[in-house]
Write a structure and sequence with these properties.
With 57 residues, the protein is α+β, with helices and mostly antiparallel strands. Helices cover 53% and strands 14% of the residues. A two-stranded antiparallel sheet has the order 1-2.
């Protein structure tokens, strides 16, 4: 595996983009994007990400 930020799962290679995202967005931007992602995936009634909300969203 080329570097510490890549890994293989089921024969597919994945790269961790967190460092690149942090460089591009800055700390506050990264937190905002993470928050937006959480809000898209969460169960609105419970305020948490559930298995069902993942299937729906």
């Amino acid at each position: 595996m080329g570097s510490e930020t890549t890994w293989k799962v089921c024969g597919e290679e994945f790269e961790d983009m967190l460092l690149k995202m942090t460089e591009k967005l800055g700390g506050e931007g990264l937190i905002n994007e993470s928050s937006n992602g959480f809000n898209l995936l969460m169960n609105k009634d419970k305020g948490v990400i559930t298995f069902e909300s993942l299937k729906c969203n």
